[in-house]
Specification:
By secondary structure, this protein is mainly beta. It has a single domain, classed as Beta Barrel (Porin). About 10% of the residues lie in helices and about 45% in strands. The radius of gyration is 22 Å and the shape is globular. The two termini are about 40 Å apart.
């Protein structure tokens, strides 16, 4: 469980924030978006290496609240993403990989997404509200993603954020600051070493995955709404504080999220983030800390009180140009402590408390802005708890292995078609290798799956236009 997939986490926010996010998304990963590139009249490689890995320019664009513009495009801030894919696991999955799919070798449209992303009113603010109002409104930016899941066959809201950003001074130093509302902790972060935009940036929904994950690493995504504020001081010191609360079940259903079995955050869950970044030679380096703490009702059941879940993470990112090439390294470690004051008496856990630790080390290399290679070592270790991890054959959350990925970006240097410029494509071949999966390296008493039965070969075309 640890913010385990066995016990997700969620509930309602203030009317103001709910209303704002509702207007943004309607009823219905930071990606490299053509709408951003058109707004800046720049190629995607100005803000990304292989998307969605940000460059220093990309981080500055995000800190500015997605509002920087060359004022040269009259196109609306719309973009689209399509991800057709093929998944093969080392051993087929009896009964099918998912409803409507075979045991193995499955084709799917992993995602189709519609984005409204850039200045809130696009290039039309002055025409709509006049130049005086535009001086304020053009400092408000939005990243709004609505996604069709080709495996689950459903639409839902996805990563969504609205920001106001400005420049000021703090203790005599220049400061880029902003306030935001979003639906996924770490979505606002400008580095790819925190969970929301961490590697792997996409993957199969038709392959087995380990049972355990920390709460901050996707356990709250699209289930919460939060408000926060950040500042980058003197281009070196980054500070971010926020508070999150689970959306109400009716609102979640309206947004395409099924709240069944979710855990309800009691009150507000504080999020915090500090980081230091500095150029060292021609490399840009960052090191930081982040964390989140939540009291939560398991399974939306408040009858036994609440659990207490605390996550603390450390991260680092180093990005270095090598002529026409770029190498980016990312490290993330997250430790979670779970006190199951409610889950234990409700029979959801075997222990009164558990702990879980995640570690990820990634190297991403892009050759000539076109050919990419990436490798990640990942490991998850924690307390064995058969009730907390019911899908684990051993009751253990321990998993580790490697992700190997080759990328080809044939249009990364180009501008795309003139009628819809800055479109881009990434073709990826990803292989996930498990040395241990939910505590097992081999099957138990001849039953179940070996860890390596879950090894996954995943071929994907990521089309952004």
């Amino acid at each position: 469980m640890g913010a385990v997939k066995a016990i997700p986490y969620i509930r309602g926010l203030t009317g103001t924030v709910l209303g704002a996010l509702g207007l943004i998304v309607g009823v219905s990963p930071c990606h490299a978006l053509p709408s951003f590139a058109r707004q800046m009249d720049m190629q995607c490689i100005a803000c990304h290496t292989e998307f969605p890995v940000l460059t220093d320019m990309g981080r500055q664009f995000k800190l500015s609240g997605y509002t920087m513009s060359t004022e040269t495009s009259n196109l609306p801030p719309l973009a689209f993403m399509l991800q057709p894919s093929i998944t093969q696991t080392s051993s087929g999955q009896p009964g099918g990989a998912a409803p409507g799919f075979g045991n193995n070798n499955n084709f799917a449209v992993t995602q189709f997404s519609v984005f409204y992303a850039g200045r809130l009113f696009g290039p039309y603010t002055s025409k709509l509200f006049g130049s005086d109002a535009a001086s304020f409104l053009d400092k408000i930016g939005i990243f709004s993603q609505t996604t069709y899941d080709g495996v689950g066959k459903s639409w839902s809201w996805d990563n969504t954020e609205v920001r106001y950003a400005n420049l000021s001074s703090f203790a005599g130093q220049d400061a880029q600051w902003g306030i935001y509302a979003n639906n996924n902790p770490t979505l606002q972060d400008p580095w790819n070493s925190t969970p929301a935009w961490g590697f792997p940036f996409s993957g199969s929904n038709l392959a087995p995955t380990p049972a355990a994950g920390t709460l901050i690493d996707g356990g709250l995504a699209q289930q919460v709404a939060g408000v926060g504020a950040y500042a980058m001081i003197d281009s070196n010191y980054y500070v971010d504080v926020a508070a999150y609360r689970t959306l109400g079940s009716k609102y979640q259903r309206a947004l395409g999220v099924d709240p069944t079995g979710e855990t309800d955050i009691s009150g507000l869950a504080p999020y915090w983030r500090v980081a230091y970044t500095k150029p060292v030679g021609d490399a840009m380096c960052e090191i930081g800390l982040f964390g989140l703490a939540a009291s939560a009702y398991p399974g939306r059941d408040s009858s036994a009180g609440s659990d207490r879940i605390t996550d603390v993470g450390i991260d680092s990112m180093v990005q270095k140009p090598l002529g026409d090439d770029t190498i980016t390294t990312m490290l993330t470690a997250i430790h979670e402590h779970d006190k199951w004051s409610a889950s234990l008496p409700l029979g959801n856990t075997s222990n009164g408390s558990d702990s879980l630790t995640e570690f990820k080390a990634t190297v991403d290399y892009l050759r000539a802005k076109t050919y990419g290679l990436a490798v990640q070592y990942f490991v998850t270790n924690g307390t064995a708890d058969a009730l907390a991890y019911p899908t684990s054959q051993t009751g253990s959350p321990d998993s580790n292995g490697f992700i190997l990925q080759a990328n080809y970006l044939p249009f990364n240097r180009g501008t795309g078609p003139s009628f819809w410029p800055r479109s881009n494509v990434k073709i990826s071949l990803q292989y996930v290798v498990y040395n241990r999966f939910d505590g097992s390296t081999t099957n138990i008493d001849g039953a179940g799956r070996n860890a390596r039965d879950n090894n996954t070969l995943y071929l994907e075309t990521w089309i952004a236009f």
